[in-house]
Design a protein that fits this description.
Layout lengths: L1 E4 L9 E2 L14 E5 L5 E5 L5 E3 L2 E3 L4 E4 L5 E3 L2
Parallel strand pairs: 1-2
Antiparallel strand pairs: 1-3, 3-4, 4-7, 5-6, 5-8
């Protein structure tokens, strides 16, 4: 699994999105990408703001299947 978000001294993550813009708008744990047993990748939004997959919003608390070449956007 890969964690996306904003790293702090108490919170280490795999992909630090704070380096890409207004960090205060990104949750410490914005999302998690997981590989399922069947080989599918899913992203779960664990933040307050939507994560966009191929232009479609995935709201907090929801997950979405990632396809080959999916575009993942976290907008501030």
């Amino acid at each position: 699994q890969i964690t996306l978000g904003r790293a702090t001294k108490d919170n280490q993550i795999d992909v630090d999105l704070a380096l890409e813009g207004p960090a205060w708008k990104i949750s410490r744990k914005q999302g998690v990408i997981k590989l399922k047993n069947n080989g599918d990748f899913f992203i779960a939004n664990e933040g307050r703001r939507p994560i966009y997959i191929d232009g479609r919003p995935v709201l907090g608390g929801n997950k979405w299947k990632l396809n080959n070449n999916s575009v993942v956007e976290v907008r501030p």
